[in-house]
């Protein structure tokens, strides 16, 4: 009995010690490590949450904006607010500085990063204006500044160069998505209809993993922005680019992960999958999860571009075949009906 009681006592003591260590690790670092953060993708749904949270934690933010702050619009952070209204709102916050530029323009990224300790690269290529254009590669110029090759890949190169030439900045947090399965239906659809956005995001990730002189944290979140996060769902992380079932996650939750990971040295040089899982399988906050992640140790494929291209082309061919068969069935039905009426 005594031994059992002693064991229970020492177990709860160990738990208290662990909890205290975790709290200290988080709060000590919060107060010391990061003095200014550069944000890319400022007015995006993820970026705006990151700027708001940095501001709440009194961390100055320098944000890249693709347009000037328009003083004539009403500042707003509402869900339906325009990019200009969100920019005006964020620019009005204390300790938020706006830099006009574009991730595909190296000079503006240099200006953004200079004097910051970390970069949150929360940008993503815009959705193509028409759904059918990406199906015809010859209609798409991959040197256009809105093309995923430029935004998700060349943009990351610019960030790496800017970090290398800065004095203080050594950490890049990049948000991408699951993309190591070219033949998954999600990858095929996103690549097929989004100008290979997933493929170029993976190539951008690899640029970061191949740098030995700087620290990165790659965050691959679930589906953001869907309101239906399951009731009682909790947070989960898998390091080393491991596997977790895709689930809806909130922009504000992923924004907090991108900021919190800056305070965990063990999260440097890591590729993290971030999903929601049923209660009992995860944690309510990221602190205990981040405390356990490790830097990447497995071999990631150096490039997956050809695999993604083949899968997307196959997807497009199947789609065309489907429409061709559908159209010919439709034509023969119409012909039969017309023949019936003409008798
Ligand atoms: N939404 C999801 O379900 C999901 C899931 C997994 C991963 N992700 C990734 O997470 C990231 C953010 O998602 P989100 O929902 O916040 O997307 P979002 O609302 O579309 O925001 C994208 C942001 O990227 C900026 N951007 C685009 N091209 C740029 C360029 N050339 N230079 C600088 N900034 C540029 C946009 O700027 P403007 O405001 O000026 O247009 C916008 O602020 C994306 O990279 C996406 O790939 C999203």
TrEMBL record:
One protein family per Pfam? NAD_binding_10
PANTHER family in the record, alphabetically? FLAVIN REDUCTASE-RELATED, OS06G0360300 PROTEIN
Q: Which UniProt keywords apply?
A: Membrane, Signal, Transmembrane, Transmembrane helix
**Native species:** Ditylum brightwellii
Does this entry carry the keyword Transport? no
Q: Where are the transmembrane segments?
A: 318-341
Name assigned to this protein: NAD(P)-binding domain-containing protein
Report the coiled-coil segments. Answer: none
Matches recorded under InterPro entries: NAD(P)-bd_dom, NAD(P)-bd_dom_sf
Where is each NAD(P)-binding domain found? 41-262
| Secretion signal span | 1-29
């Amino acid at each position: 009995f005594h031994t059992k009681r002693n064991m229970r006592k020492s177990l709860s003591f160990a738990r208290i010690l662990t909890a205290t260590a975790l709290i200290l690790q988080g709060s000590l670092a919060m107060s010391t490590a990061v003095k200014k953060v550069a944000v890319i993708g400022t007015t995006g749904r993820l970026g705006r949450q990151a700027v708001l949270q940095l501001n709440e934690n009194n961390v100055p933010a320098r944000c890249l904006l693709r347009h000037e702050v328009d003083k004539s619009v009403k500042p707003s952070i509402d869900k339906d607010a325009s990019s200009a209204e969100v920019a005006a709102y964020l620019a009005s916050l204390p300790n938020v500085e706006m830099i006009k530029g574009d991730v595909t323009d190296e000079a503006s990224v240099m200006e953004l990063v200079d004097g910051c300790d970390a970069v949150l690269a929360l940008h993503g290529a815009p959705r193509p204006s028409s759904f059918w254009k990406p199906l015809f590669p010859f209609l798409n110029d991959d040197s256009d500044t809105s093309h995923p090759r430029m935004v998700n890949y060349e943009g990351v190169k610019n960030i790496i160069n800017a970090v290398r030439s800065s004095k203080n900045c050594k950490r890049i947090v990049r948000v991408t998505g699951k993309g190591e399965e070219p033949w998954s239906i999600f990858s095929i659809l996103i690549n097929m209809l989004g100008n290979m956005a997933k493929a170029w995001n993976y190539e951008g990730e690899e640029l970061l993993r191949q740098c030995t002189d700087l620290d990165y944290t790659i965050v691959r979140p679930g589906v953001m922005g869907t309101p239906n996060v399951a009731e009682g769902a909790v947070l989960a992380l898998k390091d080393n680019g491991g596997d977790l079932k895709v689930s809806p996650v909130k922009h504000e939750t992923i924004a907090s992960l991108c900021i919190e990971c800056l305070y965990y040295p063990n999260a440097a040089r890591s590729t993290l999958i971030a999903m929601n899982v049923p209660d009992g399988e995860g944690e309510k906050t990221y602190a205990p999860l981040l405390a356990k992640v490790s830097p990447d140790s497995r071999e990631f494929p150096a490039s997956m571009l050809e695999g993604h291209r083949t899968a997307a082309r196959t997807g497009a061919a199947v789609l065309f075949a489907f429409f061709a068969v559908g159209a010919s069935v439709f034509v023969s039905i119409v012909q039969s009906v017309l023949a019936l009426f003409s008798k």
